[in-house]
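Q: What structure does this chain adopt?
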Amino acid sequence: MPAPTTLRHFDPPRDQAAVAGLWTSVFGANSIHRDPEFAVHQQRAVDAELFFVAESESVVVGTVLAGFAADRGWIYSLAVRANQRRRGIGRGLLLRAERALASRGCETASLQVAQGESGTVQFYEKTGYHPTPLGTMSRRLAGY
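A:
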């Protein structure tokens, strides 16, 4: 029987290295998390109350970040260690983030999935998310 999992807020001194390692293993070195230590630090600075971790036997096994502006919320960096998947951890983290957003008056949560991630799309569809006709556009702001 799997060990129980606890969902809690991110604790910077305790979780920084573990979360950075998790993101590297889940998202890879060539992802938007090229520097996971920096990404963790930036999220903490923006809204630490919307940064959650899942922990099992004192090991960080999952994360989710949420962002909120006006009436719209965003889900970021939902990650679960490969050997911990299909245990409800990702769904639990997602629900925790959604509840936190809803408590702030958020009416809609959105997220992005990298092209070719069909398993990830299936996960989100099972939790009630669906593709929208809007395309995402982005521009790197390095150098400002």
